[in-house]
Protein: S locus-related glycoprotein 1 binding pollen coat protein
Organism: Arabidopsis thaliana x Arabidopsis arenosa
Amino acid sequence: MSKSTILAIFMIVLVLGMVTKETQGQEMCRDILMKAKNCDEGTCDTLCKQKWKGNGSCFPNVYTYRKSCLCTFPCKT
């Protein structure tokens, strides 16, 4: 094999290893927003994007008997 072929294979393995490391160790964090108010899907998603750059969705909260906003976002390392 020529030097350029060996170098190309090495670079491919290096790049794939870096991409796998970034996506594999990514944990998702959660935060509950709008505890006092009844959740609205549009408001929940907007608040979540503003605060955490994540996705928000409403869920029935059995402790408050209302819908709360659950925000899911990538944890910071």
